[in-house]
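Work Package 3 committed the consortium to producing structural models of liganded targets before the mid-term review. Because experimental data for this complex are still outstanding, the team generated a predictive model from sequence and the ligand definition alone, so that downstream docking and mutagenesis planning could proceed in parallel. The input record is reproduced below exactly as it was submitted to the modelling pipeline, together with the SMILES string for zinc ion.
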Amino acid sequence: MSKFACICGHVINLSHGTSESELSLVPETTIDAIGGILSTRGLSEEGFYDAISDGAFTVYRCPKCGRLHLDEGDGIFSSYIKEEIVQRG
Ligand SMILES: [Zn+2]
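The resulting structure, written out as C-alpha cells with the ligand in place, is given here.
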C-alpha cells in the first residue's frame, strides 16, 4: 500500500479508490462533455470512469492540516496550503 507523509506529519494512504483523502480535480470541459454524452446516448459505469478521469488530476487532501497534494506522477507531488482567509468583494 502506497503512503505519503504530509509535511504536518500525517500519513496519507494513496491506494487508488480506497482513500477518503483522494479527490479528482476534473476540468469543467470534461464535465460538460460527460453531460452531453449522458443526454444523448447514455454512458456505462466503465465509460463514466474513463471519461471523468480523462484530463483529471488526482489530489490528496490531508485530513489533519488541509494541505492539498497534487499528484504530478512518478511519485512527485505539488503541495498547497490554505492562505489566510480574506473576504473579497
Ligand atoms: Zn497535513
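Reviewers should note the following from the model. The radius of gyration is 16 Å. These observations will guide the Year 2 experiments.
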